[in-house]
Each structure stands twice: as structure tokens, then as C-alpha cells.
TrEMBL record:
Domain JmjC: from-to ranges: 104-273
InterPro entries for the chain: Cupin_8, JmjC_dom, RmlC-like_jellyroll
Protein's organism: Alteromonas halophila
SMART domains hit by this protein: JmjC
Protein name: Cupin
Length: 338
């Protein structure tokens, strides 16, 4: 069995690194690879990044001056900074209050602060409208950004339902990533009650307890890790598992989520929950029959004309090639059933 030290994220290989990424390179090379990629220096020209490279105080003042002073959720964590469950897993180990961004930032920088705090996933358009024109992202130009501000803290491995480009603005951040197929080795916790919306790994990846989580060693064998500086970005395909650690006393990140799931009925996580509810209540033989049916209809995208040749194309309905018309047909049908 490996030691905790040998399984530290800093010992993992780094994702592929790209410089001067253009939309063409992103679409032609990076996205089809379906692996995380570091976009080195991607946002080094952003004015807010230039402020961050001067000092934490300068970028903090910049953000205080540029925000709309609307209220946000301010999260206060334990001294160790790991966002997680309480010991009995019936609650969380952090508290949440409402405050304005300037007050929250002042608290993060206060010399009297004893516990780290953060603002998570805040809409830039609402809270930092003046930033929008200066934080361009030509890879996904129409996608609204979110901002994350906080002290040194750790977020457990989780997945997103959308693709993600995360841009480090201030401080240093470590991203530790695992392929989706490693889910069985990550010891994922509850599905419906989670720290921030998505299920998380119960393994403390900085100090893994291999007696309790022995299969994590296999997950680690497939992992990647990258430590990013201000101006660097990382592309994380959905649903790759990723842990995020803020390594500096004051950190800022801007991220962009996007997908082709423009209807609420297309979100995959609710689909997973409904599938569990339906299939796991069946006897084994009945469940196996429905899994076979699910597999049959899931594999129809590339050979519709062969598989469904017995149905006239104009009459295939939702069995036709995926597209907005087909998706809206399914959406309306689901709405009539639920």
C-alpha cells in the first residue's frame, strides 16, 4: 500500500499544456481529446489579473471599487479550510451569512481573521458588471462568467454538469482531476445532500485514509494535477471529477460553464436521480430488461437510418436524429407526464 505522502496531488502528472490557444485550436484539438488542458497565460492581459500580479491588496481594492454592492452568500469555514460535511454527515462544517462583497473581502484580508471564508459562484453580470468588457473569453464568447473569491481553502473532488473553463485571477490554485470512470474508486458521498450542489468524494485527497478508502490508490493512478498562476486557465470537460485548492491567503477565480443542454429536461444529474428511483426499485430481472432497453435506445445517434429503417423518417418523432426540434418534443412529452 502506498503512503499518504506518495499520493499527494503534487506528485501527479500535469494535464496537457497549451499556449496562445485560439478558438480553432480549442475546437479542433482540445475539445475532441476529452481531457483537461491547461491554457497557460490565457488571461494575462486582463486588467484585473494585472492588479493581482501587483499585490493581493491591489486586486482586493480593485474588486471593492468595481462591484455593485449587492448582497451575496458569504461562507465561513473551519480553520483548516476544507469545505466538507460535519463529522456525522448530517450537516456541513461551514456557516453561511449574507453580506455585501466589499465587507466580505475586508473580512478575508483582516489580520484578526481566524477562519477562512469565501464567496462562491457569483454572477459577474449582477455583481461586477464593470468587469464584463475587460474579461474577454474568445473560446466561449457568449457564456456568462462567475467569480469566486476567498482565502486558502479546499473543495473536494466533484463533477460539473457542464464543460468548464476556470481562469485564475489572483493567488495560486491547484486543480486535481480524475476521469469519470474512476467514480467507483473515489468513494462518492450522498447524491441529494451535498456541500454545494454536486456529489463529492469523501476522500481527503491531501491526506487519504487508505485503510478506509483503499481503492483511492487506483483513482490516484489515473489522476492529473496542475498548479496555476494568475492569468492561467484550465479546461475541464464534463463530468470529469476535480478538486480545487486555493493555495494563497487571498484568491480570485473566474469561470465559464457551457453545454448544449438548453432545456431543463436535458440536465443529466436529474436524469440519473430519476433512473435510480425507477430502476433500483425493480426486481433484478425486470431491471436488467429495462437496462437492455435503455442501452438499445441510447446507442441510436450514429445509426438511426439503419436501426429505425422500419419507421418512415418523417414519422420517427423523438427517435429522429438529435436536434432542437427533437429535444423540444421530448421536453413537452416529459412535461405532460410528470
Amino acid at each position: 500500500m502506498a503512503s499518504q505522502h506518495s499520493l499527494h496531488p503534487s506528485a501527479l502528472p500535469e494535464p496537457a499544456e497549451y499556449h496562445n490557444v485560439t478558438p480553432d485550436v480549442f475546437v479542433r484539438e482540445i475539445e475532441p481529446a476529452y481531457k483537461p488542458a491547461v491554457l497557460k497565460g490565457y488571461a494575462q492581459h486582463w486588467p484585473v489579473v494585472a492588479e493581482a500580479k501587483q499585490s493581493a491588496l491591489m486586486v482586493a481594492d480593485y474588486l471593492k471599487n468595481e462591484n455593485s454592492q449587492q448582497g451575496v452568500k458569504h461562507i465561513t469555514l473551519p480553520e483548516h479550510g476544507r469545505m466538507f460535511y460535519s463529522d456525522d454527515m448530517r450537516g456541513m462544517n461551514f456557516s453561511v451569512d449574507n453580506t455585501d462583497i466589499s465587507t466580505a473581502i475586508s473580512a478575508m484580508l483582516s489580520p484578526d481573521q481566524t477562519r477562512p471564508s469565501c464567496i462562491q459562484s457569483t454572477d459577474v453580470k449582477t455583481h461586477f458588471p464593470a468587469l464584463l468588457k475587460s474579461i474577454d473569453n474568445p473560446l466561449v464568447p457568449q457564456i456568462p462568467p462567475h467569480i469566486w473569491i476567498g482565502n486558502a481553502l479546499r473543495v473536494a473532488p466533484h463533477f460539473d454538469e457542464a464543460h468548464n473553463i476556470a481562469v485564475v485571477v489572483a493567488g495560486r490554485r491547484r486543480f486535481t482531476l480524475f476521469p469519470p470512470g474512476q467514480i467507483e474508486n473515489l468513494y462518492v458521498g450522498q447524491l441529494e445532500y451535498t456541500p454545494a450542489g454536486q456529489p463529492i468524494s469523501l476522500v481527503d485527497i491531501n491526506e487519504p485514509d487508505l485503510a478506509r478508502f483503499p481503492r483511492y490508490e487506483e483513482a490516484f493512478r489515473h489522476g492529473l494535477s496542475a498548479e496555476l498562476e494568475p492569468g492561467d486557465a484550465i479546461y475541464i470537460p464534463t463530468p470529469w471529477w476535480h478538486a480545487v485548492e486555493s493555495l494563497s491567503p487571498f484568491n480570485v477565480l473566474v469561470n465559464y460553464w457551457w453545454s448544449n443542454r438548453y432545456l431543463s429536461s436535458m440536465l443529466p444529474f436529474p436524469m440519473l436521480m430519476h433512473t435510480l428511483q425507477s430502476l433500483n426499485s425493480m426486481p433484478d430481472s425486470e431491471r436488467d430488461a429495462w437496462v437492455a432497453m435503455l442501452s438499445y435506445y441510447m446507442n441510436n445517434n450514429s445509426n438511426n437510418d439503419t436501426k429505425f429503417a422500419h419507421i418512415p423518417k418523417a414519422s420517427r418523432g423523438i427517435l429522429d436524429d438529435p436536434g432542437q426540434t427533437t429535444h423540444r418534443l421530448i421536453h413537452r412529452w416529459l412535461g405532460s407526464q410528470l
